[in-house]
Amino acid sequence: MPDTMAYQVATDLRALRAFVSARALARGMPPHRVELLALAVSELATNTLQHATGGGRVHLWAEADQLICDVIDQGAGRAFGRDMPAADAARGRGLAIVEQICDEVAVLDGPEETVVRIRLGL
């Protein structure tokens, strides 16, 4: 059963990072990897708050030697696989950062929600 937390506004992000960090540590993820996971989830949740309505939720669980985290919202699918934006670009680094720090990133588009699933080895 995954651990779940919802978020609605930007002020929820600190609690979301703490939730993700605590659950990842409890599942045996080393602290330096926990920091990467918290950064990735924060970037995805920020993207939700900027580009979707209704907030989102996070599901987190472990399978074998991986920690899996779904960031779910009602926004449109995300475009991954892009190069890192130029240093002087005003936007666009968040999703590129997520791809670089996670072992795997997948987008699961459904009729009523979009799931970005990230995986990091424990």
UniProtKB/TrEMBL annotation:
Keywords: ATP-binding, Kinase, Nucleotide-binding, Serine/threonine-protein kinase, Transferase. Gene3D superfamilies: Histidine kinase-like ATPase, C-terminal domain (3.30.565.10). Residues 11-119 form the Histidine kinase/HSP90-like ATPase domain. Coiled coil: none annotated. It comes from the Bacteria. InterPro entries: Anti-sigma-factor_SerPK, HATPase_C_sf, HATPase_dom. This is ATP-binding protein. The keyword Kinase applies. The keyword Transmembrane helix does not apply. GO terms for molecular function: ATP binding.
